[in-house]
Amino acid sequence: MEILVLAACLVPALAVSDSSYSMYSSGQCVWYDKCGQDPDYPPPDTQHYLMCKYDGPAKSASERQIEILQEICPHLLPEDGSLPSLCCSLNQLEDMKKNFELPKGLIGQTCPTCYYNFRKNFCDVTCHPKQSNFVRVDKVATGPGDEEYKGQEKEMVKSVTYFVSEEFNERTYESCKNVQFPAQSDTVMGLLCGAYGSKKCTAKRWFDYMGSISNGYSPFQISYEYGSSQISKDNHTYHNPSVTSCNLPAQPGMSGCGCADCPKACTLNIPQFADRDLNFEIVRGVDGLVFIMIIVFVVGSIIFVAVVCASDKLTKSNLEIRDDDSLYGDMPAESQKDNGSRRGSVTTPLKDLPSPSKISYVVDPNEEKLSMENLNFLDKLGATFENNMTNFFTWWGTLAAKYPLPVIILSIAFAVGLSTGVIYLEVTTDPIELWASPTSRSRVEKDFFDSTFRPFYRTAQVIIHAKEMPEHNVTRFNFTDHLRNQLDFGPIFNKNFMKEVLKLQQKIEELQFKYKESDGTENTYNLKKVCNKPLSPEINECNIQNVLAYWQDDEALLEREKFDPEGNDGGVPRNWTYLDHFLACANNPTLTAQSDKLNIGCMSKWGGPVNPYYCLGGFIPKGSSFPENPEYHRADAVVMSIIVDNYDAKSKDPKDIRGLERAMEWEKVFIDFMHEWEKNEKPEYMEIAFNSERSIEDELDKETYGDIVTIAISYIIMFVYITFSLGQTSKCTVSMFMIESKITLGLGGVMIVLLSVAASIGTFGFVGVPATLIIFEIIPFLVLAVGVDNIFILVQTYQREPRKEYESHAEHVGRVVGEVAPSMLLSSVSESTCFFLGALSDMPAVRAFALYAGMALLVDFLMQITCFVALLSLDMMRQESNRFDILCCVRGSKKDQEKSEGMLFRLFKHLYGPFLMKKWVRASVMVIFFGWACSSVAVVPKIEIGLDAEISMPDNSFVLKYFTFLKEYLSVGPPVYFVVNNTRGQLDLSSEEDQNKLCLGLPGCSENSLAGQIFNWQKAPESTYIATAPMPWIDGYITWAKADVTESVKCCRYYKESNGFCPSHIGDEPVSSETEDKIPIPTPKEGQLDDSMFKNYDEFYYDVTEKTNKSRQKRQGDYGDYGDYGDYGDYGDYGDTSVVNKFLNGACLPCETTFSDHEQRPTAEQFGETIEWFLKANPGEKCPSAGHAAYGASVKLSKKDGSNSVGSSNMMAFHSILKTSKDYYMALARARELTDSVMEFMNNGTDPDKHVNIFPYSVFYVFYEQYLTMWQDTLQSLAISLTAIFLVTFVLMGFDLVSSCINLLLIILIVLNLGGLMYWWHITLNAVSLVNLVMAVGISVEFCSHMTRAFSVNIGKDRTERARNVLTNMGSSVLSGITLTKFGGIVVLAFAKSQIFSIFYFRMYLGIVLIGAAHGLILLPVLLSYCGPRINVAKLINSQ
């Protein structure tokens, strides 16, 4: 009667069920009840229990059977509510329920519909009342029975064939194949499909594996036969029960699968991303910007040529043309002498006084004089400023020439005094401190991550590439797998090669290093002292990612083979070898020993899985992304990664400081060993590259000194050129050469330049601004370029300016200084201002360079206007008294002294100047340079951004080879952590509402949650650069907290006596308080939560003695037994406590969370109590889903009202493979777009005070963040520099707007064309090239300002003549002062060992000099001849 009542109560629940109870009109059982042990598997085997053969009708179910049936196989209950008949006993049902614990944990909580469909397969084959319709007994064994059949010989079913419809097979697989397994960033098929893994799993392979006795879990063989028809050849029906689509609920009250586990449930599309590059087309196949620039060039050139031709015609017609070169400038016509043609007004008052070295003009006495009263305010201000500046420098020059020794001594004392600050100088070599601003977002986020969680691990890597050498049996070879596929194996899989790799790893593990502890004792340690041990202290092995981990780093296991007479493909005999084992492990790194043909298992000796893409390289086809079905067997490189614990470098904790020092000491020993091994022990069939965490910084330190010889030769060449080219030799005699040479003066000028650099460095040493390597490498070149140019102009002007009869020597020097110093002031102040404003940059390296360069230029100007002027005065006194240079005691004869023009001066005056000023030559120059500028505009936006890591290394660095191998063979992207900054408690993660904002696959999780959006984005790794699903700790915690406590699963439990957490290794027998107290307390590892946070948690870790009682094989078997990797609770558990009662009498009790309904989350109180247990629990044989290994360092707990609450937390995923700079900074950009999207969802509609900040973090972000805003930073820095130069030029040129605009235009063109050179010469845009561009702006001033100012103060009949005069006088000095000086030094840089020198310094410096010279000596004179400024008013008045 009770059974009838129970059945009646079930009718409403089954009214809409998909019962398969009455699918068949007739049929009977093939077995019933458990009989005994398979005779082929004698004790101690307890796995292979067989069913009793039974050919009769199904038997009525008992009340207990119905209860279990309702829980695990509700579709087998009749729809009419009648009592069911079954072909399975209570024992079979209880066994089946127990066997469902594994899949329930994997799929039951996150995807109930999959779990429901999955159970149908086994429920029907085990219990269906008409099972004979689709189950055929193939083999029967006779043996002794057990339990109630003890003492009887029983016929037992040993193997069956299960006839299954292809539709049922495929639809069941489709409903489950996408269910996620976050702890491995894989799907559950990686665990449920055996050696096939998730990638090679299919519907048939899945069912075949689950039914195979060789999987280590199935008690007998279930062979599946699939059919598309209804009836098989032997009249069996292909079983085809209904399958519920994964996005639909399987039963009322249940939920369907979420988006993460079922694509059909997804409502969000993958985001579309815009290309950040400037790419567009106007005409098909032609870049849009190139097309526009071609049109601009053609139209502009036609207009210009037309204007030139029209101008010529108008001139020939004697038409009036205004000429701003008039003596009167823009004065009103009535104030001019007459109203005739102004072309005549320029030439009438002037007459030419011939001079071999300078064109000078005087005003005709009959011409009306121009006076200050006739000028407007701006002209009057400019003239006054110009006169005062000239007068001041004339006075100073005269003073310095009169008293040279005091000036020299005081100026040198001033510079040396500043230079003493060098002793306080700090040099920064840390790449992070160099390129990332302390206030930048990436630095702030990195500091937060390091201080809140832990710094990312330190990694030492060895990449070993196999060279094919048949004589050593290291070649590619063919292998036939168990499916008869012909596979081409890479050379690394030759056994000899693998053994050598294993030997190398073992030697690395044995490396010893000495370290002096804080108490002064020197200890000797090995790798185990510093390495990461994820499951310490239970498994005290280092985390080493290597392909040999599939054999537990044991050569004996590598040699293991096994002959199988049945094989695995149609009964063909097979000899299973290490290659079969590799194929199985590559498909499923968590393969257990039971499921492995060689009974080895794939888990590493340190207790975790090693994914093949971590440890193999060369299997990805060239030029392609990570393949959907990678062929790992084709690999030709092994990547061995030794993971070392890291510590916060900024921490003041002595433990952190010592830990970091030990790690770096081991890395030093490791690198030394690898160098030695490569030199003396490396087999010739291996190519290796290696690296440690400290290696890059060590190599950067070496690079500082590696190119000292190259830099020294470069400077020596420039010094020699300067010292010899300053002099003028009128006769080729030794005496004349010694008198007229300027070796001493040139050397003094060079020393002034170097002293200026030293003074700048010393100044900021006093101030405390750290220096960088760029300062020592670039600033001397910069100051030499500027300083030497001023030296040449000063000396050559003195040589070309004869002393007047009424002048003394000092007055002569003063007059020359008065003429030249304003131009020197103009260039120096312009450049210094440019650099000082450049210090506004956030980038530390750029800021330091700008400050040091600006100060060096200022000091250099002061030293030149003081010390060098005094030296010039002394040297000219020496020359005038016919004393030899250097040997000043020796005097030559007076008759030998003659004035002569220099070779460059004569070349410019008689050949180059007249030729360039020809009408059509000038027009051609304008068109050519216009075309050059247009071409540069077309390509500059296409300059690549970034700095590939290998470029920063010297040519002979071992790290350079490592970077090359890394690009070639690394097959996994860097991990990325998505950090939830919850320090203010904005999220209450004990509440289901806030949990749903982060979780992935739990019922109720939002698609827009953090984990949900990461999962959605990883579907398009080519665009998002996210390659894997996330690892959300929320899902892991709920799984752990709700896992049923059974004989085989013991996750969330607590001690009955003390209420402290009960670890999974503690059995159900009573344990006294004394026993609890004896459990050892291990020292917490870096990244673990401190034990002081845990109440009564001393007993957490496994007793050390327990380890000695477990064999390695046992541990592997247990660990690999998917166990309960995330037991997601028991769907359909209606409170049956009869089974649980036996677990309530032991030492430990199940947590309350394990009794809740399948969709009910832990309460806030339960969460606060158990979350710390989860994070501290080590995975073990009874609870592999424990969270310490995967999530222990991902969650920051804090106490709140006596209960634990979650502060900040993170979840990890992996980027796709990143190879270029663009890959790296685009990965950062996309990750930030993702977190912005998540924050928009999370913070929508919430109070601003409750807004949550979420950010991505990866170790490389801090280096590549600069590239996200590189164009913005570059344009900003250049704009600031150009603005400063324009304003300074405008003021110092007497408020001359035209001259200032021409200077600005020329500098812009130089920088623009330098950008074009960067594109064509493959120079990327980064912090180094940005510094060079800012420097180019400074040096460009030298090419422009001197000549523009000289043009404005030159008096001639028209612009063309004035341009020719300036080109002859100033152009030759610019050419000899900058161009030729720098050219010799720059060429040497091409031979530098450092690629940074050869690419960014040689190529860009050469471009700066050649492009600057071309614009300054070709375009500028032509431009001045067309639209140069009017004559400087102050000079004009003085000339009159």
Describe it.
- The strands form eleven sheets. Strands 1, 2, 5, 6 and 9 form a five-stranded mixed beta sheet that branches. Strands 13, 18, 21, 22 and 23 form a five-stranded antiparallel beta sheet that branches. Strands 28-29-25-30 form a four-stranded antiparallel beta sheet, with helices on both faces.
- With 1440 residues, it is α+β, with helices and mostly antiparallel strands.
- It is elongated and about 140 Å long.
- It contains 46 helices and 30 strands.
- Residues 1-17, 318-367 and 1071-1141 have low confidence and may be disordered.
- Number of helical stretches of at least 4 residues: 46
Instruction: Give the overall shape, derived from the CA principal axes.
Output: elongated
Distance between the termini: 133 Å
Q: In percent, how helical is the residue content?
A: 40-55%
